Amino acid sequence: MGRPPCCDKANVKKGPWTPEEDAKLLAYTSTHGTGNWTNVPQRAGLKRCGKSCRLRYTNYLRPNLKHENFTQEEEDLIVTLHAMLGSRWSLIANQLPGRTDNDVKNYWNTKLSKKLRQRGIDPITHRPIADVMHSIGTLAIRPPQPPGTPPNGSYLPAPPLPLVHDVAYHAAGILPPPTPQQQAVIARVDADAPASPAADHGQQQLKWSDFLADDAAVAVKSEAQQVLGQYHHEAAVAVKSEAQQVLGQYHHESAVAANGGGGGGVLAAAGSSSGAGGGGGDDGAAAFIDAILDCDKETGVDQLIAELLADPAYYAGSSSSSSEMGWGC
DNA sequence: AAGGCGGTCAACCGCCGGGAT
DNA sequence: CATCCCGGCGGTTGACCGCCT
C-alpha cells in the first residue's frame, strides 16, 4: 500500500504563489514559527499543501535569503564542493549563507555545468572531457555470452575499477602509488579492455544487468572493492583536508572581496589546468571521492564529511591562499 | 508584429530517513 | 518490531521572459 497523500489534493491550490498568500504564510511563521508544516495551511488560512508552504518559505520567504546573483567566490565554492560531494545540494547550500539548495541546484544546472563544459571539464566527474571519453571507451565490454557459457572473467568489473585504475589520481598525489595487488587488478583491466571504443566492433556499452549476472564479474567486483577499500582511510583524510582548505579559501577570499579584492577562482583556472593532475588534485579528488561516497556508508566517510561541513571550527582559522593550493590564477 | 526558441527559476513530485506510536 | 507520519531531499516540470529571425 502506498503512502497516503499529505493533503487533500482536490482542495489544494497549485502554481505560483500570490502576494496575499505570501503575506499569510509570512504572518503565520513570524508568530508561530515553522514547525508542523502539515497544520500550517489550515492555521494560516491557505489552500496549499503543507509541503508547498514549507518550500515557499524555505526557498523564498525565509529571512536572510540572498536574491542577488552568485558571486565568483560562491561559484568557486559550489564547483569545488560539487566535485567532492556530488549533487548533495543541501550540503552545498549549507556552506553558502543565504542560498537555498534549490538556488544552488538551479544555478548549477543552468550556468555552472555549462561553464565547465565550455572549459572542457565534465561537470559530473569534474575531469577533462577527453579523459572521461577515454574511460567510457575502456568500459566497453564484450557481448553477453550465451546461457551456459562458463564464466571466463572476460567482463570488466564494476565502475570502481576505472577510478582505481586512473593514473591521474596517482599523479595528482590523491592516491598513493598502486600496490602490487592493485597493479594486478589494473593489469587485468588492461588485458581485457579494448584499446579504444572503435577498436572492437563486437563490443557494446556496459549494461549492469549483464555484469551483475556474471559470477566471474562479481568476483572481480569484490576484488576491486577490496582494493578500493584500502583507500578509504586516505580518502577520508583527503576529504577533510581538502574541504578544510576549500572552506578556508572561501572565507579568506570573501574577506578579501569585502575589502575590495578580487578572486580568480576555480572556473577561471580550470581552462588552463585541465590536464591530468595539473594544478592540484581537484579533478582527481572529485571523481574518486564520489566513487567512495557511492560505494557504501560502511566506513562513515560521508558522515565525516557532513560533520566536517557542519562544524565551522574546522575551517574558521584557516589561512590558506590560492597560490598554496594551486587553484588560483 | 509574431512566432520560434532557449534560458531561467519557482514549484511540484516521489522517494527516503528518522522519530513517534 | 511494524507501521504511520513528517520533514527533507534531489530530480523534473512548466510557466515566464527575452532574444532572434
TrEMBL record:
Cell compartment(s), UniProt: Nucleus
GO MF terms held by the record: transcription cis-regulatory region binding
InterPro entries in UniProt: Homeodomain-like_sf, Myb_dom, Myb_TF_plants, SANT/Myb
Location of the HTH myb-type domain: 9-61, 62-116
Predominant place of localization: nucleus
GO cellular component: nucleus
Domain annotation Myb-like: ranges: 9-61, 62-112
Keyword Transcription carried by entry: yes
Keyword tags: DNA-binding, Nucleus, Repeat, Transcription, Transcription regulation
Protein name, as recorded: Uncharacterized protein
Species: Urochloa decumbens
